[in-house]
TrEMBL record:
This is Knr4/Smi1-like domain-containing protein. Residues 30-145 form the Knr4/Smi1-like domain. Pfam families: SMI1_KNR4.
Amino acid sequence: MNLDNFKQLHPYLFRKESTKLVDYDYYHFFSKDYISLIQSYQGMIAFENGAVFRTNSKIPIITKGYITVDYLYGDCKDENGLKYNIVDAFDIMPDDNFLSFGECPGGNKVCIHKNTGNVYFFWHEAPHDDECYYYLTSSIDMFIENLETDPDDEDIQDLSNVNVSHSLLELIKNSKNK
């Protein structure tokens, strides 16, 4: 697995405490390279520079051609762990052939299909069960290799120097005087 793009996202260990443990081994559904990657962080993996995955799939709630990935579950036995979140997702995912391995905004997830290894976006508020899984790529390794820095994250990093038009300043000034 090529990790060049992944490293540019500046992944870091993110920890929260929990007492719930999960013991079933789901790891055999994931590639050895992916398991090595999450074991190297020993917990939930978040992204300092944000992370997106570009997709050609037509996903109703995606308008910019990519999904945003908030974090990947780690190799730990608490609420940040892969095993815990796979079991937790069984309550919301209508098909148990999919195993979640990461979170997207709004409670959506990225998941792997147990039989094919394909990676899917799970839209948890889809109107019907047959409209909630959207194909992203053929493997978890391809998914990791193709993560990119979030372009929206770059756009808002520095708001200290903002240019405002004269007409907008006048409008603001006039609204204060009312």
